[in-house]
Design goal:
Length: 337
């Protein structure tokens, strides 16, 4: 294992030694000799990749080709944790990833683990784009050594299962795969389910073999990994938004001239809006794919949703003990709770 890690480190350092040479420019044109790396742990056919590629394209366009970014998907530069560590060390300038892995490095990011705050993705977007909230969450990233350039998303996380869910008691006893996140697990326990952390690569086989009954993910993940093939129902629990952050190393950003910093922020804004629109289109397409397969999509009635909201309160209490209270209030400003 140590030998494998050492070999991986050598490969990555080789990539970065070429990419980070992009900090140098040609004297005659001011154009980078090589591209700055942007790392993701996601496959190419995802909103994460769309977000990253659009950002890189816009940086090039706005700089008239003088600034270049190379996107490395599929954990080529490391998994989520490695990407964050390398970015903090200044080795990888840009990272696009889901917010969940960031909680280990920045505990206040757990504000996004508060379940059932919103049931409309446009309200989520309004809340996180709000200047008051953005200023507060930006301080969290800055303290960690990063600058937040924006959030796109993959809509909400939903549940897939082989048991029809119509009422709150139907969640009882369901063995549902979750990420190894205490707040996520607490939420499902409050519903009466039995959360089971499992490596994502094992989920399809786990569903196939009956090791687990259910799982939760955004529609895009359910379709891209064909999880719906092993499930009779998709339940629109909409328990958490699946946010995707675009960050830059604070150290790297400060090293750039003001005009280049401005281009990066402008490109990030354009990429964010584009990725959100693409996400909405893709979700509609993924829902149709699921329906065409014969898997039924269930929308829960208002009484069941209200009970889910009530049972989420204990998770809120746990998170509020760890997360800055003013950040929680700013995030929930658009919520009817």
């Amino acid at each position: 294992m140590k030998r494998l890690k050492k070999l991986t480190a050598l490969v990555v350092s080789g990539i970065l030694s070429l990419s980070l040479a992009g900090c140098g420019t040609q004297a005659s044109t001011g154009t980078q000799r090589y591209a700055w790396p942007l790392g993701t742990s996601s496959p190419e056919d995802t909103v994460t990749q769309i977000y990253a590629e659009k950002f890189a394209q816009e940086v090039s366009r706005l700089s008239q080709g003088k600034m270049k970014i190379q996107v490395y998907p599929n954990s080529v530069l490391g998994g989520d944790r490695e990407l964050l560590e390398s970015q903090k060390d200044g080795d990888i300038p840009f990272v696009v990833q889901n917010t969940a892995p960031q909680v280990t490095f920045m505990p206040d990011i757990a504000v996004f683990d508060m379940p059932r705050v919103y049931n409309d993705i446009n309200l989520v977007r309004t809340a996180i784009d709000d200047p008051e909230f953005m200023a507060k969450i930006q301080k969290v990233y800055n303290k960690g050594g990063y600058e937040l350039l924006g959030y796109a998303d993959q809509g909400f996380r939903v549940m897939s299962t082989n048991k029809k869910i119509a009422f709150i008691d139907d969640f009882k006893g369901q063995k549902i795969r979750t990420m190894e996140n205490s707040y996520h697990m607490m939420f499902w326990k409050q519903l009466g389910a039995s959360p089971t952390p499992m490596t994502f690569s094992e989920v399809y086989i786990g569903l196939q073999q009956g090791t687990i009954d259910a799982q939760e993910n955004p529609y895009e993940v359910i379709v891209s990994n064909k999880l719906y093939e092993q499930q009779d129902y998709v339940v629109e629990t909409n328990h958490l938004p699946h946010l995707i952050s675009l960050t830059v190393s604070s150290e790297f950003m400060k090293s750039l001239p003001k005009n280049q910093q401005k281009i990066i922020r402008q490109a990030a804004q354009i990429a964010k809006e584009y990725a959100r629109k693409q996400s909405d289109k893709r979700i509609a397409s993924r829902i149709q794919t699921i329906k065409d397969s014969g898997t039924q999509i269930i929308t829960l009635d208002s009484a069941t949703q209200a009970e889910m909201d009530t049972r989420s309160e204990k998770v809120y209490e746990a998170i509020e003990k760890q997360v800055d209270a003013s950040l929680v209030r700013a995030y929930m400003k658009e919520a009817n709770r």
